[in-house]
């Protein structure tokens, strides 16, 4: 068997303006090429993880120490969040499109009681789940959140 040599992969710089893979900032690429070998237990890597958690808490406006980033795709983050939902849990979800509609259904299935699943296992209407519908493709606004808070109070 002969060894086939492939040419170097050249990925042109393009604007990825939508869901899916996005462009890596040149500053990030530069840091990758100039960094040494470090694993998850290296002191500087640990410091970076701690700093990232602090910044995420600032972005989300919380003091919750259990705020953390999930390494992976957006689906990885959703999987991590969905795994915490148990039957009967109270959940609020904003649905504004195709994928968030799937997430809303997943939340209803995860939080549904045995009785709610028995009534309709493919589309359970879990009483503990509040779905707020936002027009497809529109962002959730602070008014949407205030209205929800008023309704739940």
Task: Give start-end ranges of low-pLDDT stretches.
Answer: none
| N-to-C span | 72 Å
Q: Helix and strand string, N-terminal first? A: HHHEHHEH
Q: Helical element count?
A: 6
Gross morphology: extended
Strand order of the largest sheet: 1-2
- How many DSSP E strands? 2
- β-strand percent reads 5-15%
The helix fraction, in percent, is 40-55%
Mean pLDDT comes to 85
Largest sheet: 2 strands, parallel
Radius of gyration: 21 Å
Give me the secondary-structure category.
mainly alpha
Mind explaining what this structure looks like?
With 153 residues, the protein is mainly alpha-helical. Among the domains are: 50-84, no CATH class; 87-153, no CATH class. The protein is built from six helices and two strands; from the N terminus they run H-H-H-E-H-H-E-H. It has helices at residues 26-34, 43-60, 74-82, 98-111, 114-119, 142-152; strands at residues 91-95, 129-133. It has a two-stranded parallel ribbon. It starts with 25 loop residues before the first helix and ends with a helix. The relative contact order is 0.08. The mean pLDDT is 85.
């Amino acid at each position: 068997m002969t060894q086939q040599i492939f040419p170097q992969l050249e990925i042109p710089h393009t604007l990825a303006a939508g869901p899916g893979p996005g462009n890596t900032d040149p500053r990030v690429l530069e840091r990758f090429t100039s960094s040494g070998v470090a694993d998850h237990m290296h002191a500087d890597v640990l410091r970076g993880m701690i700093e990232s958690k602090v910044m995420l808490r600032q972005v989300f406006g919380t003091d919750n120490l259990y705020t953390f980033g999930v390494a992976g795709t957006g689906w990885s983050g959703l999987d991590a969040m969905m795994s915490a939902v148990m039957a009967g849990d109270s959940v609020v979800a904003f649905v504004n499109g195709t994928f968030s509609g799937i997430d809303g259904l997943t939340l209803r299935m995860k939080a549904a009681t045995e009785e709610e699943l028995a009534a309709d296992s493919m589309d359970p209407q879990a009483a503990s789940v509040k779905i707020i519908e936002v027009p497809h493709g529109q962002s959730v606004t602070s008014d949407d959140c205030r209205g929800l808070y008023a309704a739940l109070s």
